[in-house]
Design goal:
The protein is rod-shaped and about 170 Å long. It is 61% helix and 24% strand. The protein has two domains: 83 residues; 82 residues, Threonyl-tRNA Synthetase, Chain A, domain 2 (2-Layer Sandwich), CATH 3.30.980. It has a four-stranded antiparallel β-sheet with strand order 1-2-4-3, with helices on one face. A hairpin with a 2-residue loop joins strand 1 and strand 2. It is an alpha+beta fold. The longest helix has 86 residues.
Length: 181
């Protein structure tokens, strides 16, 4: 027997096309959701890995910061120690200078003619105050000081006559510049 399909053929093709489209759209949605889920899992794993790395890096940074602090403290202590050692070396090197200076001043004084009342030193300038019998004794004292090894120059600051226990004496003040080294 012959079957005759009275329905138009395009409806059959249309239904089949719709079914194919539904399958295609459904498969696309499933693939899209699988792709989104995979991307989400991948991103979550990447974020977790990065968070672990950040945590490790922060721990390492804390350790290195502590070490750096120790190193900085050591550098400060070292700088302080070097300053102290430099001061000690300078003191050790120059500890005999005042003795030599006073010895030279004592040798330069004309015997029994000059009396020193004060000696003071600031940096390379030495101030001498005293009394003498005459200006010529002061001049001789200055000449003797100029010949001393540690004294560079000698200048008369003041010289005036005073009465000391009814004796006329010359009160003088000298400024001496020391040689460096």
């Amino acid at each position: 027997m012959i079957k005759i399909n009275l329905l138009p053929y395009w409806e059959h093709k249309k239904k089949e096309g719709i079914r194919k489209q539904i399958i295609f759209v459904s498969a696309s949605f499933v693939l899209f959701f699988i792709l989104i889920a995979s991307l989400h899992v991948y991103m979550t794993m990447t974020v977790n890995t990065l968070e672990r790395k950040v945590k490790l890096s922060e721990n390492r940074l804390a350790i290195l910061t502590k070490i750096t602090g120790d190193v900085n403290k050591f550098k400060r202590d070292k700088a302080i120690m070097i300053k102290k050692l430099t001061i000690i070396d300078n003191l050790e090197k120059n500890r005999m200078d005042p003795i030599y200076l006073l010895d030279e001043i004592a040798r330069s004084i004309p015997a029994g003619k000059i009396w020193l009342t004060s000696v003071s030193q600031k940096d390379v300038v030495v101030r001498l105050r005293g009394m003498s019998m005459s200006n010529s004794d002061i001049a001789l004292f200055m000449i003797n000081l100029k010949m001393a090894r540690h004294i560079k120059s000698v200048d008369l600051v003041s010289s005036k006559q005073i009465n000391y226990s009814n004796v006329k004496l010359m009160d003088f003040s000298l400024s001496c510049t020391l040689k460096k080294g």
